[in-house]
Amino acid sequence: MQNKTILVTGTAGFIGSNLTLRLLEEIKGVKVIGIDNMNDYYDVSLKEYRLNLLTKYEQFVFIKGSIADKELITEVFERHKPKVVVNLAAQAGVRYSITNPDVYIETNLIGFYNILEACRNYPVEHLVYASSSSVYGSNKQVPYSTEDKVDSPVSLYAATKKSNELMAHAYSKLYDIPSTGLRFFTVYGPAGRPDMAYFGFTNKLLKGENIQIFNYGNCKRDFTYVDDIVEGVIRVLQKAPERATGEDGLPLPPYAIYNIGNNSPENLLEFVDILQQELIRAGVLPEDYDFDAHKELVPMQPGDVPVTYADTSALERDFGFKPSTSLWDGLRKFAEWYREFYKV
Q: Backbone dihedral region of 194: left (phi > 0), alpha (psi from -120 to 50 degrees) or beta?
């Protein structure tokens, strides 16, 4: 990736900003073009905070706009001719997709289509894009393997992410575009998304409000620290699926899918207990905080699944990498960041 131009969409997002920062700091001669629409799905000041960490680098160019704007995307590819594209721009959130479906179609489908068309018309060496563990739906077989069938999404968000994989496969086959989809599992860490449980819980506990723990605490999540996600993305970026020709004389699709998860699901109640201890340790909550008085066990929400659990053997085999940050370490870093950022 040295001396190459890399396009990162969703660059002010949680994963996008952490990835962009690593690229700028570590890759010699790299130029990063970042696109983000800076929407208000959650607190824009968080996105501005992340973006401010990036704009001090001369080799970073920021473009405010939406990937659903085809004219803009075409202009970016025409002007900057990126060799590597990382598409992280998406409308996230399972529950939000139930009440606000339009934005998922616009960004996750039309936006991704625009990226694919641009990669077709301005050939790239590698397209890497964010999929999600939500594509597994209510799959009963665990851990989730990329070999499993994923034909039963339980939310529109999940359906759009599965659609991205299908669209990328078609473009890989038709136009020989090397593409890799990454199914991320419950990403957390400092400056994360406030709509994620650990962040929302912290906000509510600090205000003395009650937190709701779904499925009566019987949910398990494969919580993955953001640095582990970024390390996985960077390794994948450097090794595009190989181009080859099939028996029909047409290119075999240079296409791959990987899980990036911690391969170690945690019970939600245990997760919340660790979070509480780390918030007290960091001084965000007082030592005598009555946690039990602010905890409600409630039924499962529509679109949610009881367990997520990543089989990461393919990632280990092909890239020699397995996420390893413990929940204690990850939540400690989040709690310390939270104290500093919100001046608690």
A: alpha
